[in-house]
Amino acid sequence: MTDITIYHNPACGTSRNTLALIRNSGVEPTVILYLEMPPSRDELKKLIADMGISARALLRKNTEPYEQLGLAEDRFNDDELLNAMLAHPILINRPVVVTPLGTRLCRPSEAVLDILPDPQQGAFTKEDGEKVIDEHGNRMSH
């Protein structure tokens, strides 16, 4: 069984679609509800390093803490941004998926297809009605 972890927010459509695409590959991932069980500082640093992005690139901007803390300003170093994400997990953009093929922030949700080891097993349509996978398990081009 392929070992996959998703840092998931069930209130987020992109996160729900990503989870459904993982399940459509025949895998039941480890689901971490990161708003309830945030990653440790070391885990968060590792996720960011494994994605090859900056701490700032993982920040979710359209949230209240982002505005309140003035995080749009360029005066924060990575450690300070990590502190903000750990204090306010809603600032961690989602979903982050970890598979044997890599770690990725899956926005849009189809980005997960690039790191899923197992093929899609059937058709998949996102919640908004966009068809992503055809009945043969192949990614549809748009």
General description of the model:
The chain is an alpha+beta fold and 142 residues long. It has two domains: 82 residues, Glutaredoxin; 52 residues, Glutaredoxin (3-Layer(aba) Sandwich), CATH 3.40.30. Strands 2-1-3-4 form a four-stranded mixed sheet. Helix 1 links the parallel strand 1 and strand 2. The model has no long low-confidence stretch (mean pLDDT 96).
Helix percent reads 25-40%
Secondary structure class reads: alpha+beta
Number of helical runs? 4
List the strand order in the largest sheet.
2-1-3-4
CATH topology of the largest domain: Glutaredoxin
CATH top level of the largest domain? Alpha Beta
* Shape field: elongated
Tell me the radius of gyration: 16 Å
One letter per element, helices H and strands E, the order comes to: EHEHHHEEEE
How much beta, percentage-wise? 5-15%
Main sheet? 4 strands, mixed
The low-pLDDT segments are none
Number of domains: 2
On the 0-100 scale, what is the average pLDDT? 96
Distance between the termini: 31 Å
The assigned CATH architecture of the largest domain is 3-Layer(aba) Sandwich
The CATH fourth-level homologous superfamily of the largest domain: Glutaredoxin
Count the E strands: 6
